[in-house]
Amino acid sequence: MSELVKPSSVEVFEMIDAALKYNQSATEGKEGIYQFNLQGDDGGIYQMIIDEAGSRIAQGEKYESQVTLTIDSDDFREMVAGTLNPTAAFMSGKLKINGNMGLALKLQTVLNSFSF
Asked: Which domain of life is it from (predicted)?
């Protein structure tokens, strides 16, 4: 039996970027710079920028973030897929949040608006 191939972190953020452009209303009232520090074999730094120019993803640390989320890349994929609850991930220590906690809470509604 073959195992399903998981998308890479880059592919996940490409899907998020496409979803942001498709559903701009999901980010209304959630302006800010969200940084994701993904750890593990498929780690990296990504930013979700939501501003007057629209919503987009950038690879690397392009701007000063207002909230930074640090999580293992596998756990992040589970969170985006909806199989890992962000609150449970935070409470268990799998997800660490630094910066504007209110902005971090708004992120959950943005991610929940996508279906991957």
From this structure: Bacteria
Helix, strand or coil for residue 17?
helix
User: Which residue type occupies 115?
Assistant: S
94-112 pLDDT per residue, tens: 999 999 999 998 888 887 7
90: which 2 tokens? 């935070």
CA 98/CA 116 separation, integer angstroms: 26
Rounded Cα gap, residues 61 and 52, in angstroms: 19
- 116 confidence band (pLDDT: 50, 70, 90): low
What span, in angstroms and rounded, lies between the C-alpha atoms of 97 and 107? 12
pTM above 0.85, yes or no: yes
